[in-house]
Design goal:
about 375 residues; alpha/beta; eight-stranded parallel sheet; 14 helices; about 40% helix; globular; binds zinc ion
């Protein structure tokens, strides 16, 4: 499948590196292109708080702001707020209308996120693909909690669609609205909105959610919540529960999948077309570098056994770090010395491994 956006095409299956605040940590846009990146993520919640969505808009939009003239997707912030509410109920309260939260960034000012605010903010940021503001089902949620999340996710999706319609179309009175935009409608400044399926680990709720999201006729569909991403088997089972309900001509985005390279094989085999995860860069920064022969598919470069190891990270890897011949011993030394070069070389290797893995798989349709 090819997803057309106003900043270029995306071929699936695709792994999307995460640049939460408008930067894939330690990498330049050229680095990202050189390792085969087609599309990156940024996060609405983080950009809304700093520098502010309006500031990004005034600076010409996210692509211009960060020097990335290629496809970009923003997550709505629903997942971050769900995580915040799980960490500290005093910092974040979710109700039927939206979420009230306190940010650590601005001295404890109270903020309110609603589907309307989340969509307007993503439009200001200027992403090519924007995500519905949802209520992700947390890990271990019982059925009653899951039902509340699913109901809110559906009600909020309707409000997201309405907001996108009104914000972009600005129709004169009595003019019919023209939503949804076609997938790949190359209309500058018109983002594609993806709806998100929630349902936790309950197949009946997952199917109910899938049917509802599909009925909204959006250009793409995502599946999210804690049941997706952490355990590849559970992720595959969750997708399998809804796969037959989903249109074949629209991309399915599995949110937060990609801790290990093998997770990509699993999730794309299950029927997803797109996925993203912070893990490759986060693991890289903490010393974990992908290697297909290692336990857990990664080396821990901090270990002393690498101090005199003259081999490269992965002899079969075509990334800049491996092809240039940087040894495990050198990377071990850089990591121990907390040299900035380590973060770049390590992130390049881990991201390239993920992108190469996705590119080696059959095209999804
Ligand atoms: Zn490499």
């Amino acid at each position: 499948m090819i997803i057309h956006t106003s900043h270029g095409d995306v071929r699936t299956p695709v792994f999307m590196p995460v640049g939460t605040v408008g930067s894939v940590k330690s990498l330049t846009p050229d680095d990202l292109l050189n390792l085969g990146t087609q599309i990156i993520l940024a996060n609405n919640y983080h950009l809304y708080l700093r520098p502010g969505s309006k500031a990004v808009k005034k600076l010409g939009g996210i692509h211009k702001f960060m020097g990335w003239n290629h496809p970009l997707l923003t997550d709505s912030g629903g997942f971050q707020l769900m995580s915040l509410s799980r960490q500290n109920i005093n910092l974040c309260h979710i109700d039927d209308e939206g979420v009230t939260f306190t940010s650590h960034l601005d001295g404890g000012i109270s903020h309110r996120f609603t589907p309307e605010i989340a969509i307007k903010s993503q439009i200001d940021i200027g992403a090519d693909i924007i995500m519905a503001f949802d209520c992700p089902v947390p890990a271990g949620a019982d059925k009653k909690t899951t039902q509340i999340c699913v109901k809110r996710t559906h009600e909020w999706l309707v409000r997201c669609i309405k907001t996108l319609n009104i914000t972009l179309s600005r129709p004169p009175k009595n003019t019919p609205l023209v939503f949804p935009p076609k997938l790949g409608g190359n209309i500058k400044g018109v983002p594609d909105l993806f709806g998100i399926i929630q349902g936790g680990t309950f197949p009946d709720l997952l199917r109910e959610s899938a049917q509802f999201v599909v009925s909204q006729n959006l250009p793409g569909i995502a599946i999210g919540g804690a049941a997706i991403g952490s355990d590849p088997k559970q992720t595959a089972e969750t997708i399998a529960a809804v796969r037959d309900l989903l249109p074949k001509n629209k991309p399915l985005y599995a949110m937060g999948v990609g801790i290990r390279p093998s997770d990509l094989i699993s999730v794309f085999s299950a029927g997803a077309d797109m996925c993203d995860c912070v893990a490759p860069t986060r693991l890289a920064r903490t010393g974990y570098l992908y290697n297909p022969e290692a336990k857990s598919e990664r080396l821990n470069i901090s270990q002393n056994k690498f101090k005199l190891d003259k081999s490269v990270l992965d002899v079969n890897c075509d990334c800049y770090t491996c092809v240039s011949g940087f040894t495990r011993a050198y990377l071990h030394h850089l990591f121990k010395s907390r040299e900035l070069l380590y973060y770049r070389l390590a992130s390049i290797h881990n991201l390239r491994t993920m992108i190469r893995t996705a590119a080696s798989l059959p095209t999804t349709s």
